[in-house]
Amino acid sequence: MPAASAIRTLVVDDQLTMRSLVRASLQQIGVRDIEEAPDGEAALRSLLVQPVHLVISDFNMPNLDGLSLLRAIRAHPPISKTAFIMLTGRADRELVQRAVQFGVNNYLVKPFTTAQLKEKLEAVFGPLT
Amino acid sequence: MIGAAVQEPGERRVHVGQGDHYVSSDPDVVLTTVLGSCVALCLRDPEAGVGGMNHFLLPEGAGTDAGAGRRYGAYLMEVLINDVLKAGGRRDRLEAKLFGGGRMFDALTDIGAANAAFAERFMADEGIAVVGGSLRGAGGRRLHYWPVSGRARQRAVTDQAALPSSTPRTPPLASAGDLELF
Hints:
Oligomer: heterodimer
Strand content of chain A: 15-25%
Largest interface: A-B, 30 and 27 residues
Low-confidence stretches of chain B: 171-182
Distance between the termini of chain A: 7 Å
């Protein structure tokens, strides 16, 4: 059973408010090691220097959007196995299906609750302590 | 009929209800709404000539950092911002006007103040310039906003029956499981 506190996480969203809300939910779940990036490009730069276990990323972002970030991560062998949860503004079937093709681990529709985020983390990592 | 004022020729009115938003680049479009303790964000990119309005009421507890209210509010702000950007707006040129957040006569707690505080903090955190508007005060407002020119007009609403309910619409959390892929 993995410990939530051991999951190093990168939160990627162009809105500071959303990043701080995701961070607050993660902290409630017990995740302690949280980095943030304002877009896909900054996220990729950060990941190549400092890999994480989990990326939680918005879809709509300037520079590199969430889907392009996912593809880039899967194409870089040192970080290609990073778990990836996509945040979307609505349950857009086409977007989610494309994300699945590119190897997304799970997705979460905004606005979400802390319990829903925990459910998705557990779907990816197994039950958390 | 809510809009009592005489309509200009060629003008097209669009009513924005609670929980809704609307974006347009048509100079003939006038966005209208009636606000009690709700807040409307009027947002536009003056150079791109595109703008829009939302209309929200946060559930109780919106003041706490991780509260459901803030998450719902942030979501409603984001969908408006994203639609303005999709229609050609640029984030660094966005300017906002905030209206509403009134203290209602029958309210035990000042929900309007919480809504207003959330909206102001959101704009400050996201670095979006607030160039005008009218928040708080007693009673309701009828608001007209021209999303292309940025002109806004409000009138006090004294008729309680004209004001929308101060019960927030249920946040659409149920949609999280719509697509059964996992």
